[in-house]
């Protein structure tokens, strides 16, 4: 989901970004109960847009609503992340034939992949703040959504978009090196070139390598406290 390119900033957008910032910078900790009144005082925003921002984040999996207990920051759990990445691997490799077919016959899709890769590398090379970090992971997520969208399966795309595929990114800020991040984009480039070559085995291999490497990097960088 694109969280970085709103044409105008609503109060919901402002609250949404402030909440993401506080989770990323560990002002709001995993498992911590969210008190809307406290957020109203902290952000200077009324409670209604804060509630709407939290609803958006519930959909993304960053926060969760517990019946009779309220809303809390989602706990960071390695087993959950590992299972999520396994699901991504299953989805992204199952439809390789359909994805290759769409890619071959849709020049617009190719252009979107190229724009994503170029912008992603530019952001990494010139990143200076937290907003650039968010943009980095938005572009990472966008690449995979473009890939899955090529399957032509609309129901699958809705499921994939609701997985919260990159929620872990908000817990490893400042822990992954620039070199590791660049390596991830290079793996995206390898997937793209395999699609251009229409090499089914290579596409599958590149996707598998990328997700396995992502799993290893996340495990290394995930807070253990």
UniProtKB/TrEMBL annotation:
Domain of life (superkingdom): Bacteria
SUPFAM superfamilies: GntR ligand-binding domain-like, Winged helix' DNA-binding domain
Residue intervals of the HTH gntR-type domain: 9-76
Keyword RNA-binding: no
Pfam families assigned to the protein according to its UniProt record, in alphabetical order: FCD, GntR
UniProt key word Transmembrane: no
Keyword line: DNA-binding, Transcription, Transcription regulation
Molecular function terms, GO-annotated: DNA binding; DNA-binding transcription factor activity
PANTHER family in UniProt: GLUCONATE OPERON TRANSCRIPTIONAL REPRESSOR (PTHR43537:SF24), TRANSCRIPTIONAL REGULATOR, GNTR FAMILY (PTHR43537)
UniProt name for this protein: DNA-binding transcriptional regulator, GntR family
The organism of origin for this protein: Sporolituus thermophilus DSM 23256
